[in-house]
Amino acid sequence: MRPEVEGAKRVVVKVGSSSLTDSKGQLDLARVAQFARELAALHDRGVRVVLVTSGAIAAALGPLGLRRRPRDLETQQAAAAVGQGLLVRAYSDAFAEHGVHVAQLLLTVEDVLRPKTYRNALNTISRLFRLGVVPIVNENDTVATHEIRFGDNDRLAALIAHLVRADALLLMSDVDGLYTAHPETPGASRIDRVDDISALEVDTSRVGSKVGTGGMRTKLLAADIATQAGVSVVLGNADDLGKALAGEDVGTFFPARRKRRPRRLLWLAFAAEPRGFLEVDEGAERALLSRHASLLAAGVREVRGTFAEGEPVEILGAGGRTIGRGFVGYSSADLTLELGRSNAEAGHRSLRPAVHRDHMMLTE
Length: 364
Ligand SMILES: Nc1ncnc2c1ncn2[C@@H]1O[C@H](COP(=O)(O)OP(=O)(O)O)[C@@H](O)[C@H]1O
Ligand SMILES: N[C@@H](CCC(=O)OP(=O)(O)O)C(=O)O
Prior knowledge:
The protein is α/β, with parallel strands linked by helices. The chain has two domains: about 5-260, Carbamate kinase (3-Layer(aba) Sandwich); about 275-360, Archaeosine Trna-guanine Transglycosylase, Chain: A, domain 4 (Roll), CATH 2.30.130. The chain has helices at about 5, 30-45, 55-65, 75-95, 110-115, 115-130, 155-165, 215-230, 240-245, 265-270, 280-290, 330-345, and strands spanning about 10-15, 50-55, 100-105, 135-140, 170-175, 230-235, 250-255, 275-280, 300-305, 310-315, 320-325, 360. Strands 3-4-2-1-5-6-7 form a seven-stranded mixed β-sheet, with helices on both faces. Helix 2 (about 30-45) links the parallel strand 1 (about 10-15) and strand 2 (about 50-55). Helix 3 packs across helix 4 (about 75-95) and helix 7 (about 155-165) packs parallel to helix 8 (about 215-230). The longest helix is centred in the first third of the chain and has 24 residues, at about 75-95. The protein is elongated. The protein starts with a helix and ends with a strand.
């Protein structure tokens, strides 16, 4: 049993397109009814539930006469706009059978991370909780452009779990957990528990189902975000939602890490678009990775891109591999000047780090 999930007071459940559609790719109303029944029961026990649901695009395939999920962004956005209303109507009707009201929230990643907007989102969700309404979230596909778009709902669900300080996040899909390789690969086996995501050796390169986006790669990223935010994660089959909610040992379990990361660092690591790159020398790379030291200007070999002080940048190690991200302490112009000075004046060391350790997220 998993007491972290069984005793959870706040739960975020994400259901993917793959578990909401039938073999023809149409919205499966029996599934919607199952989720509504199980979540309404949880809600009746006083647990605060947020449902993050995909399926808007899938729900539009039938009405629009499309044989498969569109590939281009504009048609995906248009299809999502058609399907979203149908999806929420289906949930609304299904929850009403159990006397529960639902609310629709369309959010982007930025909405749940930017200080200006996350508070509004949190206030709305908190008030809905007090009103006894179950919030139903999907990504706002209409306004989510390439740069700020997740496309899958896995990472959005993890950030919502962080936003509402959930105890557990359940990522429900069409596969009964994380496998050592794509489940159809001979010899692939299911992993019961993952304590350290960075130490995993799992092949997630094969994409997911015909209707879903991201496959296991985005689910692992989501599990990483959530566990770093202090939320335990279950990744499993939507058929087992009831068992997973009861804390039974189904799917793959990722226990929460003890230390909660602040929101701005989660944004930096998982949502920000870096404005430039800092290539560091071997000494600096070692200091960062072994001691989590601040990055000094003297350890920066090359500055690429144009950025202002405080903007997100990617930190590259000696071999050009990404070792982390940080909010940079200088503008690109000032940092380039600083590099020139520290090379020309032997012993010159600026007191201000290029990236302070508290403003940095290492990849490992
Ligand atoms: N290592 C792996 N373990 C489990 N499933 C995997 C793995 N690699 C790829 N997958 C695929 O990921 C799919 C689930 O992802 P996706 O289609 O995006 O689902 P959803 O719509 O539920 O988000 C599974 O159907 C499975 O085929
Ligand atoms: N916002 C989109 C989600 C896209 C999607 O397929 O996500 P997922 O099934 O979680 O991989 C929709 O509702 O169709």
